[in-house]
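Lab meeting prep.
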Amino acid sequence: MHRAELTEYAHLIAYAGETAHLKDVPAIAAIESSLVPVCPRCLDELLVRSEEQPVQVTSRESAFDTSLVAEDANVSEGVPSCPVHGLARLKRTSPQIANANDSGGLLPCSALIKTILASDKHENVFWFEADYLRKRFGPGIDLTSSTCRLKQGEQGEALLEGAARVCPRCLRDFLFHNGVEVWMTPSSPRCLMDPPEIPKRFLAAALMCRNAVFTDSRNASMKGETNSDLTLVSTELIAVNV
């Protein structure tokens, strides 16, 4: 964290060099609740670029490498790489929207529907045109609203069976440029995170960066390295890293 972020707790903190010692339990709880997970290697690269001491040995070449995907990135085979945004967990959408996204064209003439696939624990948001939804579920599906809610299971399988896969950042930018209000965040090859309203327990499953893909939301571990946990940092550091 930046020292400025600890100003309101200054009367409770004892500093020893660049280390802050805090024993007040309520203050510790408040600080911890404000932290977000980040790739530890990306954080080390940020520290090196900022002339700070990294936790793990990190070369300046790695810290200032601007490639979308690190040469020794910790990802499993088959994880796709977007030529614009680097590593990406692809998002489902209709073939028509995917083709328009790839070609830089326009949205299909059919009405665009925000499609929410819900389970007891969380919701996933997708974008499909009305014609695609009628094709998958028949003419009886209620599309009177611009939002359609479906349930995981048979409905989810039917929805995604004929869907195409696209980079979620490319899709977001495409929809935004076509006048669709979507959640926006700066596109970057550095640590990319899903919207902040997603509970922290799901963030690990959504986090990917140039160095790794994090997939296990139960213990926030890197795929292939179950003992390599995400590091918690302040949102201000997240903004700097992006």
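Slide two material, second protein:
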Amino acid sequence: MRTEGGDTLGNSIRRSWETQMALHPITAAHVALMSAVIAGNPEDWWRRKLGLILDGAAAMLARRGHPDEAGQDVICR
């Protein structure tokens, strides 16, 4: 998605955040991290996001347990 000036929406958002970082030093580290996340190719960003979701699902599955040999769910608490 592009702005009226032809810039990407992500770059426009990052620039507005960067001007605010100096005014709000408490949140500057968080803003810098978010700026890094949205930088670059949107296709890469979505791929990284999908990877995070899948990693989270795998971690939840590992914590909850796996079906036993009888086909019953094993619940770990």
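Talking points for slide two:
Residues 1-40 form one domain.
The chain has a mean pLDDT of 76.
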